[in-house]
Write a structure and sequence with these properties.
Two copies of one chain form a homodimer. The first copy, chain A, is α/β, with parallel strands linked by helices and 394 residues long. Chain A folds into two domains: 116 residues, Alpha-Beta Complex (Aspartate Aminotransferase, domain 1); 244 residues, Aspartate Aminotransferase, domain 2, CATH 3.40.640.10. Helices cover 40% and strands 14% of the residues of chain A. In chain A, strand 3, helix 4 and strand 4 form a beta-alpha-beta unit. Chain A is globular and about 65 Å long. Chains A and B meet through helix 1, helix 2, helix 3, helix 4 and helix 9 of A and helix 1, helix 2, helix 3, helix 4 and helix 9 of B.
Chain lengths: 394, 394
């Protein structure tokens, strides 16, 4: 061991002895993550194999095929990014936006703002259309902004996780073709839970996450890119200014060449494959109907006990419901109470809705009648007592 | 369902019915991933919890503390990036390199080239020192290049996964202080397996992966940043040109504020926490000695059966050994044979060593005497027959 003579001695300061992990039991009815399907968790814990193992290479193709089904697209560049949904969001921009490109972002919630922030980092000329949080955009509003700004990319959120609004998509793709721009769509809270048709809607770039409608833990970001968007990528004047998310490199690994790019998160992809397999087994129409039916039960139940919902019914997301926090209630404390005393997670508001709404998710594996009953029952039995104690202490 | 009347019908083309996943049993003795510890796989399959759940927030602090132990650093900005090791590699550059900054990259293998590629994407003025693959850099070579280029960052690989070289680190940090540049170190194949002292060696930026010395599946990229590197980040003139890897945002989530950035890959962090806990339980000195002892057994055994190693003993990595492929053997076919008939993965060469070496990893959970015996035994019994059949068919 002569070569280690110059080494310092090991500092034990940070060497803490922790117990093996036992996580608490939670029913996750917030904005995500949602509970994972037990079969997905089982797949996640299979022993890893090599990222170039022929078995794994076959699995990659299966994941891609099943993602195309879930998204209703034929795009060859359909794959899970090796990061969370935000990484896939960034991938849509990093690959297609060149410095100076006009990117028109529709902002009616938190995630529109994130898109605008990201586009700015890639030196886009960022233009905004803004609406109240909780509203959707009309075709007229979108068309007049397209005429005004003539952007290279229009970015819009299909399912706004911060507000619970589902953006009507009919006609937007046609407008983007008419005004020659790419359509970039956030489907984080819609994939697997809400009707979604990438090709029929003429969407050029979309991203999602693993931990909501797909019933998988967080960690992968499904990504898809149309041939039109591929052309814009191919015509870039320089390299994509992000190595990890560079689709031209990633496609050499996910495409037929199988050239090493980065070591794939093998176990997360085991889970993703199982999650997508279960969705295909159930069938998209059945999954969408299940989400819709359970959401309607939730809306009825909440309104029956006197609570109001932020979003009008025709724009309401089945996967995520925003409930107005009644006067005299400290919404955050009620969330803490539900988590600590009942093991149920419900989300608070983000951004301009902070302190004003709760966010209740019914996504993927969790969109079941017994969960609807449980959360309505908790609001019905716990909120009144909480209201008086919160008013008494005020 | 009146609002869904305009929806197209679902295309069943990509809806394939696959069987539930059963992965093959593999002993992963390539360059990584390595087999994961069974307790890590168990942790990975625990039901997810929310990324802002107080239980999860405590777990994040535990992961950070244990990473500080594993890396022997007090850096507050020590955290696992929500991507693989390559994402953490990119994070070191994205956060600290501004356009025009000189970045001096030491290239003696595949991953030095990757660092140079990434630095170029962040508009660095990239300068190179190159050596033969399989050699290490001397202090004299580094000092003369520092004098010549006066870079803002010196990037070097501690453990080159493509060659099996362990770069001697004594004195490099002092040189970087003398010439006022940050020291960026790739520790992908050293963390947990090879003596490594971030603070004593005056390293400013380092990254690693989860799937080698830590015995966790791939999917997280440990990252650490010194106060000196933090200062460079704080003094940037604009935003970090990468949203997902922006440490100034990430620190609001991992630091005391706990402000939402992205939804953490909760289950991967369950696994990481368990992996780091097991390393702390064993103790760094014991883990390093175990890797060294088993590597020496491997080297002796391979040389005993007449094989030659690429790297001289004083520079050899205990975690990854490069073996010269003898004349008359198709190295790739032998790897395929080992995988298909014996369930054992051994790596081939990358870049300028493609077709010239095999790469045998003994990392983390897999660094055990019985694995050394198995792989030596396989080379001893299978290679001669393979040699003659390969020569016969040539």
């Amino acid at each position: 061991m002569s070569k280690t003579q110059y080494l310092p001695s090991v500092d034990q300061k940070h060497r803490k002895g922790f117990q093996p992990l036992h996580s608490p039991e939670r029913l996750l009815l917030g904005p995500g993550p949602s509970n994972a399907h037990p079969d997905v968790l089982k797949a996640l814990s299979l022993p890893p194999i090599g990222h170039l193992d022929p078995f794994y290479v076959d699995l990659m193709s299966e994941v891609q095929q099943l993602l195309r089904y879930a998204w209703q697209t034929d795009n060859r560049l359909t794959l899970p990014m090796s990061g969370t949904g935000s990484a896939a969001m960034e991938a849509t921009i990093a690959n297609t936006v060149e410095p100076g490109d006009k990117v028109l972002v529709c902002i009616n919630g938190y995630f529109g703002n994130r898109l605008a922030d990201m586009a700015g980092r890639y030196q886009a000329d960022v233009r905004l259309i803004e609406k109240q949080w909780g509203e959707a955009f009309s075709l007229e509003e979108i068309e007049s902004s397209l005429i005004e700004h003539r952007p290279a990319v229009l970015a819009i959120v299909h399912a706004e996780t911060s507000t619970g609004v589902c953006q009507p998509m009919e006609g937007i793709g046609d407008l983007c073709h008419k005004y020659d721009c790419l359509l970039l769509l956030d489907t984080v809270t819609s994939l697997g839970g809400v009707p979604l048709f990438i090709d029929s809607w003429k969407v050029d770039l979309a991203y999602s996450c693993s931990q909501k409608g797909l019933s998988c833990p967080p960690g992968l970001g499904p990504f898809t890119m149309s041939p039109r968007a591929e052309t814009k990528l191919a015509e870039r004047s320089g390299k994509v200014p992000n190595w990890y998310l560079d689709v031209s490199l990633l496609n050499k690994y996910w495409g037929s060449d199988r050239v090493y790019h980065h070591t794939a998160p093998v176990n997360m992809n085991f889970g993703m494959r199982e999650a997508l397999r279960l969705l295909a087994e159930e069938g998209l129409e059945n999954a969408w109907n299940r989400h819709r039916t359970n959401a309607e039960k939730l809306w009825d139940g909440l309104q029956r006990i006197g609570l109001e919902l932020l979003v009008p019914e025709n724009l309401r997301l089945p996967t995520l419901t925003t409930v107005l926090i009644p006067e005299g209630i400290d919404g955050k404390s009620f969330c803490v109470h539900l988590l600590n005393n009942h093991g149920v997670e419900v989300g608070g508001g983000l951004g301009s809705l902070a302190g004003k709404v709760w966010r209740i998710g019914l996504m993927g594996y969790n969109s079941e009648p017994q969960n609807v009953e449980r959360i309505i029952n908790l609001f019905e039995t716990e909120l009144p007592g909480f209201r008086s104690s919160s008013e008494a202490s005020a």
